[in-house]
Amino acid sequence: MISRFSHSFIPTKREAPKDATSLNQKLLTRAGFVHQELAGVYTMLPLGLRVLRKIENIIRKHMESLGGQEILMPALEPKANWLTTSRWNNFDVLFKVKSQHGYEYALGPTHEEIVIPLAKERAKSYKDLPFSLYQIQTKFRDEPRAKSGLMRGREFGMKDLYSFHESKEDLNIFYEKAKQVYIALFKEMGLDAKITEASGGDFTKKFSHEFMVLSDAGEDNILACSTCSFAQNAEIAKVKVGDSCPNCHAKIEEKKAVEAGNIFDLSTKFSEDFELTYVDKNGKKQFVVVGCYGIGTSRLVGTIAEVCADANGLVWPESVSPYDYHVVVLDAEEKLVASQLEKLLAHLEKEKKDVLVDDREERAGMKFIDADLIGIPYRIVVSSKTAASGKVEIKSRSDEKGRLTDIKDI
Amino acid sequence: MISRFSHSFIPTKREAPKDATSLNQKLLTRAGFVHQELAGVYTMLPLGLRVLRKIENIIRKHMESLGGQEILMPALEPKANWLTTSRWNNFDVLFKVKSQHGYEYALGPTHEEIVIPLAKERAKSYKDLPFSLYQIQTKFRDEPRAKSGLMRGREFGMKDLYSFHESKEDLNIFYEKAKQVYIALFKEMGLDAKITEASGGDFTKKFSHEFMVLSDAGEDNILACSTCSFAQNAEIAKVKVGDSCPNCHAKIEEKKAVEAGNIFDLSTKFSEDFELTYVDKNGKKQFVVVGCYGIGTSRLVGTIAEVCADANGLVWPESVSPYDYHVVVLDAEEKLVASQLEKLLAHLEKEKKDVLVDDREERAGMKFIDADLIGIPYRIVVSSKTAASGKVEIKSRSDEKGRLTDIKDI
């Protein structure tokens, strides 16, 4: 797919908005990926949405590999269900919506209240278990502060998967598999996540694991080994700064990190609330054992922006970049340039690459600044100089210098 | 993609829920496509979500052909913007959300209040116009009644496109193009839509056109020619039942219809509210002329279910069917059957077809009933009989009888 910059909604800016405090908000706004509507509430502009969709599709692929079946649950959740789980008055960031017609709804910050009753439609016998359902959907949280750009939103995208099992043992098998899948999917997006054991969160959670990406923008503190993958959440850590790592004896350090995902063993708490039971091999009724597995999708856009950036702007990993190539056209009015550009685009289109072509009437310096700011992995320059040489200049976003190459070799 | 029914979340039912009043709710629930959470609030189960995604992708393709750029706006909209347009107290189905932290939001039933200020990021000079932005996103409406299944939801999927122009003349060119694109995309989904001129709706709308699909489940009445495509909304119709059609002189009849889409000329109403201006060729400031183009995506799932059904269940058009083939396996324990099934699935997978394989331990009659209910366009039977013949039985959902065929000819 070829997009022309001159016709695209990419409002790049020289300056970050004055009220922006986080690096991801500054960069993503300046580069034209997002537009803040309210604190913690963003519009995804075409570039930001392309990144989000790539992240979602990577997650989707990995959830399918776990056997997850995709569904889409609503944001309006029945008050009655939240009363059933005793969370209507105890879930601190719950948005409540009052209808003019006398109803009340929870504006979903999570979906146990929907998915557990829904699971009754299938979980009847032990033969129906295990199975897992997931969605990629919009969540709402009435956060007191929302100052970290896409890291902590009042409205945000999330993937939540729920798994249903006969026994704790069967849950554990799935839970360990999910851990490995999470690490793999973060890696596919260019993120190195550490798994930390964390407190269970609110009273409904038995225990949980968090997937932490080291970043100065992180709101969590973790105690992490300087060498190996050992890490603990500072809130419940048994090690302290300066200790030797129990795994490899290197030094433990305190680091800031972003929680990119979390997984919970919910045990039978919600199954008991909603009487989600199955009949076991001996004909006896048992509560279904449930696990819950979350990943913030729009938060990942922010996390990757924080982690993959330099002084000049964003540096997207290829797997989530909005485009594969950023073509800068100079001297566009020259015949030779036009014909080289045409040849280049025909080649890239044949190779099924996604290309952003900067065909704006702007000076060269501005175009190079915007290319660095937007951070597409490869920049290709087409100009009177390259047209004369018969080659184009290609530069990786993370390299200092480009090199001349034949179009057919790209 | 091959899905096994035995492992899939497809809760088919013999009976419709007692409170279901509309055909689409009855059929989609019985066939395991949707699950009602509240009146007008549904979960899309795997089959329903597959249909929704196909509808969305057809719409997306046509929006791109119009030059639309996809974005994603939030559901939480600032109260201040709704006060600016005087709709905070005048939009009858507006859900209002109160934060514990003192904020108030509109839970977006439409997005003029977000997209018009956003358009200021680009619409500066006449050179920046025209352009158009669209999203496929979840909308909320505090409907007094929500009894028509997916036809009138309190929460529902929608595509909304907004176009921005220099002049009324330029809007008109786009508006007429959009009309043709709408008719084409409905046709691609198997729907024959009539365009009716309608009242502008609330006070902000200048005039509008509705795209009406004839269906007894429709909540609108239109006066339509029995022969040609002429139609008018009953509310503002100039013709009456029994009149001759002004186009072709056939008889005018009153019909029930579902509004599948609508388009509005918003003129400069919202541009004036938010001072969305551009500088024209003469250096003069002008208000941007705006058009708005909606399609209910989840409503289309319901509309197609109503229109494409018979006494035995759903009959999906190929373009939006959750799968291409529904394979019914009988006598699965027989070796010959297993090997024929394997050969069939290898062939369909090579052809990149999406296949639902009914491998459940159910009796044949039940499997055939479910196949008709679910309504995938082609059913293929693999049994001891077909295995012995070396051919499989294929039947179109709308045909009475199947025929034997070689696997390679499918």
Helix content of chain A: 25-40%
Number of strands of chain A: 24
Alpha plus pi helix count of chain A: 10
Tally of separate domains of chain A: 2
Question: Which chains make the largest contact?
Answer: A-B, 48 and 48 residues
Helix vs. strand class of chain A: alpha+beta
Question: Distance N terminus to C terminus of chain A?
Answer: 16 Å
Strand content of chain A: 25-35%
> What multimeric state do the chains show?
homodimer
Largest sheet of chain A: 9 strands, mixed
Give unreliable regions of chain A as ranges: none
CATH uppermost class of the largest domain in chain A? Alpha Beta
Kindly report the average pLDDT value of chain A. Answer: 94
In CATH, the architecture of the largest domain in chain A is 2-Layer Sandwich
Description:
The structure is a homodimer of 410-residue chains. Chain A is an alpha+beta fold and 410 residues long. Chain A has 2 domains: 309 residues, BirA Bifunctional Protein, domain 2; 87 residues, Anticodon-binding domain (Rossmann fold, 3-Layer(aba) Sandwich), CATH 3.40.50.800. In chain A, the strands form 6 sheets. In chain A, strands 4, 8, 9, 10, 11, 12, 13, 14 and 17 form a 9-stranded mixed sheet that branches. The longest helix of chain A has 21 residues. The first copy, chain A, is elongated and about 80 Å long. The two termini of chain A are 16 Å apart. At the A-B interface, β2, β3, α2, β4 and β5 of A face β2, β3, α2, β4 and β5 of B.
